[in-house]
Design brief:
CATH topology of the largest domain: Calcium-transporting ATPase, transmembrane domain
Keywords: Cell membrane, Magnesium, Membrane, Metal-binding, Phosphoprotein, Transmembrane, Transmembrane helix
Number of helices: 13
Oligomer: single chain
Strand order of the largest sheet: 1-2-3
GO molecular function, one term: ATP binding
CATH class of the largest domain: Mainly Alpha
Helix content: 55-70%
CATH superfamily of the largest domain: Calcium-transporting ATPase, transmembrane domain
Distance between the termini: 33 Å
Subcellular location: Cell membrane
Membrane topology: Multi-pass membrane protein
Number of strands: 3
Number of domains: 2
Strand content: under 5%
Shape: elongated
Order of helices and strands: HEHEHEHHHHHHHHHH
GO cellular component, one term: plasma membrane
């Protein structure tokens, strides 16, 4: 440990800048007039309630008690907040990328839209409402051990890795609805006008369930539910969203939105699809973490 004593105000500021030049995030604690330049240059300037006025004006944080423990609590809460922001941005970017890619593929091969505008609005409303409680989620202890820096490139990289994973199972759903559940047969039997409601209903449910359920997988680099579990508000919001989405085709609003009842075998296929999606996403996550040494 190197100790500096009897420094001038400019020397204190030079030490702060030297540490910053080496990539460190620097905090400086001072209460006198001579500490003002270093307090100004530090990433976090800390003073005390009994310090000089200029020191308190320059500082970012003023301690009202003779203890630094409050700073530890603040740092942990700040890292939790930053982590949850990264979660939302990564999840939203990858989800939207996957959905757009799926719609482009469907538009190229299907004779009608895979989902109506009203249905897309309903889907986004349910999903986005469920994500409003994400700020109350927990972060894994490993994430909180060291500070993280904002890197915009990580979001695009995360999006390109995770986004296409959902598209694989969206396209699988298209094929199932077209072949197994009769959307293609209805289209040909009714002169090109049938089958759309079947396709819309099936993809709406699959898309909403996969988007919402995968939140629990993407929120942590660990195995969801077994090694890391979301907070209770997030658990309730996501599973409520899934329940509402599965209820809509049976609701009084189904016809107005453009949905229909789906056969019981659809739900078995849906469960199998979700299991496959979770397994593939977990494999992609494992490869991603091994390659880039981090998840967020």
């Amino acid at each position: 440990t190197t100790v500096f004593a009897k420094l001038t105000p400019l020397q204190k500021a030079r030490i702060v800048k030297a540490l910053q030049a080496n990539g460190h995030t620097v905090g400086f604690l001072g209460d006198g007039i001579n500490d003002a330049p270093a307090l100004r240059d530090a990433d976090v300037g800390i003073s005390v309630d009994s310090g000089a006025d200029i020191a308190k004006e320059t500082a970012d944080i003023i301690l009202l008690e003779k203890s630094l423990m409050v700073l530890e609590e603040g740092v942990i809460k700040g890292r939790e907040t930053f982590g949850n922001i990264l979660k939302y941005l990564n999840m939203t970017a990858s989800s939207n990328f996957g959905n757009v890619f799926s719609v482009l593929v469907a538009s190229a091969f299907l004779p009608w839209e895979p989902m109506l505008a009203t249905q897309l609005l309903v889907l986004n409303l349910i999903y986005d409402t469920s994500q409003m409680l994400l700020p109350w989620d927990k972060m894994d202890p490993e994430f909180l051990k060291k500070p993280r820096k904002w890197e915009a490139g990580n979001i695009s990289r995360f999006m390109l890795w995770v986004g296409p994973t959902s598209s694989v199972f969206d396209i699988t759903t298209y094929i199932l609805m077209w072949t197994v559940f009769g959307a293609g047969a209805m289209y040909h039997l009714n002169g090109g006008t049938g089958g759309q409601i079947v396709m819309n209903s099936g993809w709406f449910i699959e898309s909403l369930v996969s988007q919402t359920l995968v939140v629990h997988l993407l929120r942590t680099q660990k195995i969801p539910f077994l090694q890391s579990t979301a907070s209770l508000p997030v658990l309730l919001s996501t599973f409520t969203a899934i329940a509402i989405g599965c209820w809509l085709p049976f609701s009084p609003f189904a016809e107005a939105i453009g949905f229909m009842h789906l056969p019981g075998t659809f739900w078995l296929w849906l469960a199998a699809t979700m299991v496959g999606y979770i397994l593939l996403a977990q494999i992609v996550k494992t490869i991603y973490v091994r390659r880039y040494k981090q998840w967020f």
